[in-house]
Amino acid sequence: MTEHIRKKRSCGTTDMASRTRKTPETRRAEITRAAAHLISRHGYNGISLKDVADLVGMSQPGILHYVGSKEGLLSLLVTDIYDVNGTPEEFVQTGLPGSDPTHPRLPAYFDYLVEHNAGRPELTRLYTVLQTEAIAPNHPLHDYFIRRPDSVWEHYSAFPWKLPDGLEWERDMRDYVRMSLEVMDGIQIRLLRKPEIDYVQEWKRFRNLLFPSPTWDDCR
Hints:
Radius of gyration: 22 Å
Low-confidence stretches: 1-19
Oligomer: single chain
Order of helices and strands: HHHHHHHHHHHH
Distance between the termini: 74 Å
Helix content: 55-70%
């Protein structure tokens, strides 16, 4: 065996080993990161699966093996990644002020959520771009965003939030939740423009209007 062939085989073995070491979870993570990067800049309609494949160094059939379709990739990004981070479940495990699992405080959770989203700007940008695109009825996520306010309300309703005297969750809090999330969405759209603003500080200005003192002093 010549030295050239030995080197070639050795190189091929190394390359194959490096490929086989990647688990399906690792591959999916690479794909979703690449897709988030591309969609946040060009929108869902502005990219193809080939663009994602090229960015991660895979073939288009290889991408399809993991996501099934372009729509499947979108579902993976939003419902399996964005929606499972920064949740109330995570918040009550943090030990942060207001995170007592027996009586968590809603404004404190929203502070946590805003800090969380501010710390991952590319995914926040991705969500904002998709939400804007999905206004079109033929967008794959159109129905998802239509249903989202109801699904968020149902999710939050499972927690024993501490409320000021005289307020009841089912009777009074739906508008608080809706307006808080609409404020966050609006700030996130503003983040796409210039000049830049501080997401956290901007939220706090609205938070103090939505959950004013002294009514909410013991529940923030």
